[in-house]
Every structure is written in structure tokens, then in C-alpha cells.
Amino acid sequence: QQQPSMRSVLVTGANRGIDLGLTRHLISDPSVAIVIATARNVESATELNNLKSPKLHIVKLEVVNENSIAYAVAKVSKIVGDKGLDVLINNAGISYYTPLHGDLPKSKMMEIFEVNSVSPMLIANKFYPLLKMASSKKGSAQIEMISSCLGSIRNSKSVPKDMHIAAYGMSKVCTSSL
């Protein structure tokens, strides 16, 4: 069996979608020793809980709650120990159907921005010491901030004209493809 090159990977929002798929892939990857999958509500994350692997650890994380982030950091610290965290994949996100026709409430916009834009930075900041620990042992650690083609400035011409995902796109903007 191949020796793990990435000792530990944490995936935010792993209860569904892309992150659940990433988690499935990571637990089957022999180069990964520890997979930490987070979910806002662990009990109702049926598909995630159905994944069976000795390398999988499921941790509760409400990405907009600083107490929940601190709790998750403490749990992950116990899981990875003094080896630290090698990779943080920040992709948890939300979207609402929000057409621009006069009924888009500020509260929905702020919720989308808080989850998709602010929380990834909070999480990266709070997990930084564990990433730094891994970096000092192995020479590197990574933070992956996942964006979306719906937030791409280059692809903005292909966004539907009714802008039903405008708030989501704005919260996931990426300019690296320009």
C-alpha cells in the first residue's frame, strides 16, 4: 500500500454536493491518511454518515458560528495531533433563488455573503495554527478556497438574464481566470 503523502484533509460542508463527492474520493485515496468531513447538522447528514472508512472523521461545524468553529478546531486538533492539518478545503456554501425584480431582501444577501465569503476566511484564520504545524513538519500545507464558475467575471456573460443567482455569484467571485 502507498504511503500517505497527505496525512490529513479537512472538507467543509461535506454533507452534500461537491464536498460529499470530494469526501468519497479522499477516503478512497491511499495517499490520504485522515479525512475530516464537516457538516452543520451531523445527525441529518445521512449520506455522509453512511460512508464507512477508518480514516473518516465527521465533525460538526456551523461555518458562520465562531463558537462552532472553535469547537471544530479543538476536535480536529485532537484528531491530527502534533502532525497538524495538511489541507483545508473551504467549499461550504449556500444559495437561494433570488431574482432581481424588487423582492431581494438584504437579509438573504447578507446570509449568502456571510456563509460564502466571510466564513471561509474565518475558518482559514482559526485553522491556521494547525496548518502551520503541518507546514513546519512537512514543508507545506494548503488552503483551498473553492469558487464557482457562477462567480467568474470572465463567464458573467453566460449567467441567465434574470440573475436568479446574482447573490450567490457575487459571493463566489473569482478573478484568477482573467
* Overall morphology: globular
Distance separating the two termini: 41 Å
Question: Sheet with the most strands?
Answer: 5 strands, parallel
Residue fraction in strands: 15-25%
The largest sheet has its strands arranged as: 3-2-1-4-5
What does the average pLDDT come to? 84
Spans where pLDDT lies below 50 across 5 or more residues: none
> Structural class, please?
alpha/beta
Task: State the share of residues found in helices, binned by percent.
Answer: 25-40%
Structure annotation, total helices: 5
Q: Radius of gyration from the CA trace?
A: 17 Å
Number of strands: 5
Would you list the SSEs in sequence order as H and E?
EHEHEHEHEH
Entry keywords:
single chain; alpha/beta; Dehydrogenase; 178 residues; 40% helix; Fungal_SecMetab_SDRs; NAD(P)-bd_dom_sf; 5-stranded parallel sheet
Commentary on this structure:
- It holds the Pfam family adh_short.
- With 178 residues, this protein is of the alpha/beta class.
- It contains 5 helices and 5 strands, in the order βαβαβαβαβα.
- It has helices at 17-28, 46-50, 66-80, 106-138, 166-171, and strands at residues 6-11, 32-39, 56-60, 87-90, 142-145.
- A 5-stranded parallel beta sheet has the order 3-2-1-4-5, sandwiched between helices.
- The longest helix is centred in the C-terminal third of the chain and has 33 residues, at 106-138.
- The mean pLDDT is 84.
